[in-house]
Amino acid sequence: MTQHSDTPTPRTFTAAPALSGSVTVPGDKSISHRSLMLSALAIGESRVEGLLEGEDVLATAEAMRAMGATITRDDDGVWHIHGVGVGGLLQPETALDMGNSGTSTRLLMGLIASHDLTATFTGDASLSKRPMARVTEPLSRIGARFTGSPGANGNMTLPLTMKGACPAVPLDYTLPVASAQVKSAILLAGLNTPGITRVVEPIPTRDHSERMLKGFGADLNVEVQADGTRVITLVGEAELKPQNIVVPGDPSSAAFPMVAALLVPGSQVTIANVGLNGTRAGLIDLLREMGGSIEVVNAREVGGEPVGDLIVTASALNGVEPDPARAPSMIDEYPVAFIAAAFAEGRSVFRGLEELRVKESDRIATMAQGLRAIGVTVEELEDGIVIEGSGGKLLPGGGPIATKLDHRIAMSFAVAGLVSEHGVTIDDMRPVATSFPTFLPLLQTLGAVA
Ligand code: S3P
């Protein structure tokens, strides 16, 4: 699924004048993946507006086509999906190339687990290192079989071949790790499984799968217990009805212009149509606690998800020590939060972030290494990082930053470059195309120099 050129694309980002203007970010990646998968399982035509046309989502589209769905795109950017019905997925003729996308891989394993077909998953060097046992283990319990490659700590990795079970056995599973991907994989497997699939989630994670499954007509119930544990039940052998979906802007992409506007003195930026689902909005809360001015206007609901426009004004920030319990609500935003901390007044301590070590790169190590390379004092911890802020003084800068095929590392250090004395060079901007193909033009629209 890799569509980039064969050679790395380095780029230097330098100190920016005040950023200003109004921008929109591309569609939410998590919602885009789910909209293609569920539409492909509904009988009839679904329509998706605002789909993220990044490489990760296109990998999902390609996989759903390979398993029988008809997926087309109008010239005006609206996507049309003719689904095959729950249980109707076809045997893919070749291996499914997942590129860089962990979400595509893990959710599709769930879908396939309860279908009578065999599929092979391959991916790029980053994805091929990521642990898959977190999904293969529960999905084995419903009857699916997996043969993978040996990874670190005995974990199964790609390339991997799986054989689904039909009929599958319904699962009752308590998530051992706070992961929306694992939760979603199990729920998607439950769609074509007789009986009731139950997932217990002690720490809440993004709930797009639950919202969208209900929207497509699945019989799904969420009970929230007194201690916050969520118990999700899904009645299997579901029949999904085609939908018209409008995908809101991705808060994980909005995070980059948001932090840029807070850090570059004199900036004021509007980011329109940003998803504000509470399971995703942790960065906004954190930045506000640090002293950031972020105003939400025009709050509304789009496609069953809360959405608003953000007015972000440059602000002096203070260091923070966020409670690890809120990690899932901003799990993908830590790299850019570390950049905000590097420019804040005082020390920030981030802990409880073991999960960051198994993202597109080991985000604790990659960020620690990059921050040091641009002159920031950091201490890497097993489960987090301690960052000494510059108190609003330009960061020295430097590089090239090793982005390790990780889009969010590239974009985070691009933001750092906008508040650096000598500029920050990123070794390779190509991974940005996985989630935010318009990142560079968007920064340039706001007046950034790159
Ligand atoms: C995602 C869940 C998160 C997140 C990823 C997208 C999803 O992963 O990091 O970018 O769409 O469900 P985990 O479930 O591994 O935390």
General description of the model:
With 450 residues, the protein is an alpha+beta fold. The protein folds into 2 domains: 11-27 and 248-446, UDP-n-acetylglucosamine1-carboxyvinyl-transferase, Chain; 29-246, Enolpyruvate transferase domain (UDP-n-acetylglucosamine1-carboxyvinyl-transferase, Chain). It is built from 12 helices and 22 strands. It has helices spanning 29-41, 55-66, 102-113, 133-141, 180-191, 208-215, 251-263, 282-289, 334-343, 363-373, 407-417, 439-445, and strands at 11-13, 20-24, 43-49, 70-73, 79-84, 96-97, 118-122, 145-150, 156-163, 172-174, 196-201, 220-224, 230-235, 244-246, 268-275, 293-302, 305-313, 347-350, 378-381, 384-388, 398-401, 424-426. The protein has a 4-stranded mixed sheet. A 4-stranded mixed sheet has the order 4-5-3-14, with helices on one face. A 4-stranded mixed sheet has the order 6-7-9-8. α5 (180-191) links the parallel β10 (172-174) and β11 (196-201). α3 packs parallel to α4. The chain starts with 10 loop residues before the first strand and ends in a 5-residue tail after the last helix. The model has no long low-confidence stretch (mean pLDDT 97). Bound molecules: shikimate-3-phosphate. Shikimate-3-phosphate (S3P) binds at residues 30, 103, 179-181, 184, 206, 331-332, 355.
Spell out the blueprint of helices and strands.
Elements: E1 11-13, E2 20-24, H1 29-41, E3 43-49, H2 55-66, E4 70-73, E5 79-84, E6 96-97, H3 102-113, E7 118-122, H4 133-141, E8 145-150, E9 156-163, E10 172-174, H5 180-191, E11 196-201, H6 208-215, E12 220-224, E13 230-235, E14 244-246, H7 251-263, E15 268-275, H8 282-289, E16 293-302, E17 305-313, H9 334-343, E18 347-350, H10 363-373, E19 378-381, E20 384-388, E21 398-401, H11 407-417, E22 424-426, H12 439-445
Parallel strand pairs: 2-15, 3-14, 6-7, 10-11, 21-22
Antiparallel strand pairs: 1-22, 3-5, 4-5, 7-9, 8-9, 11-13, 12-13, 15-17, 16-17, 18-20, 19-20
Helix pairs in contact: 1-2, 1-6, 2-3, 3-4, 3-5, 4-5, 7-9, 7-11, 9-10, 9-11
Bound molecules: shikimate-3-phosphate.
Residues 30, 103, 179-181, 184, 206, 331-332, 355 line the site of shikimate-3-phosphate.
